[in-house]
TrEMBL record:
The lineage of its organism: Eukaryota, Viridiplantae, Streptophyta, Embryophyta, Tracheophyta. Residues 21-170 form the DUF676 domain. Gene3D superfamilies: alpha/beta hydrolase. It comes from the Eukaryota. This is DUF676 domain-containing protein. InterPro entries: AB_hydrolase_fold, DUF676_lipase-like, Lipase-like. It comes from Arachis hypogaea.
């Protein structure tokens, strides 16, 4: 099996389709960061989780792109995740591990990628439309799917899901 987990580049060989990783773990960095911030974590997770996991460090929202807003960055992340899912036909499950502002991006991306009804395949914007191999994947329509995959974990670290307190917040757009 040959997969590379460096940003947007994922090399897939024919052997991946049949016996490749089944679980996609998306790592999402925080403000003014890049996928290289996950290098150590990615290596350790790969070592401990094994070949059944594709550890993918997101690179669609690097550095100043984190200032474009949660909606824009979340859509970019959703597009990036869909590209990974399209290229890796063996995937069945998905998890997210995000830090700080990246947790808000990931939360938005999950909402964009969510599909409550798996029987609507073929509609525009339907994550199932991206891969016809999804019919071979286990059907978890009870709780819906994320990018056509069964959601397992959504973990955020130091993410301000409830906003931030204080009257002295600085709008970064004015700097």
């Amino acid at each position: 099996m040959s997969t590379a987990t460096q940003g947007n580049s994922i090399a897939i060989t024919a052997s991946n389709i049949n016996n490749g990783p089944e679980h996609l773990l998306v790592l999402v960095h925080g403000i003014m960061s890049s996928s290289s911030d996950w290098t150590y974590t990615e290596a350790e997770l790969t070592k401990h989780l094994g070949k059944n996991f594709l550890i993918y460090a997101s690179s669609s929202n690097t550095y100043t792109k984190t200032f474009s807003g949660i909606d824009e960055a979340g859509k970019r992340l959703a597009d990036e995740v869909m590209q990974v899912v399209k290229k890796t036909k063996s995937l069945k499950r998905i998890s997210f591990l995000a830090h700080s502002l990246g947790g808000l991006f990931a939360r938005y991306a999950v909402a964009v990628l969510y599909s409550p009804d798996t029987s609507t395949s073929g509609q525009l914007g339907d994550p199932q439309n991206c891969t016809m191999e999804n019919s071979e994947r286990t059907n978890f329509s009870k709780g819906g799917l994320i990018a056509g995959l069964e959601p397992i974990n959504f973990i955020t670290l130091a993410t301000p899901h409830l906003g931030v307190r204080g009257k002295n917040q600085v709008c970064l757009g004015l700097l």
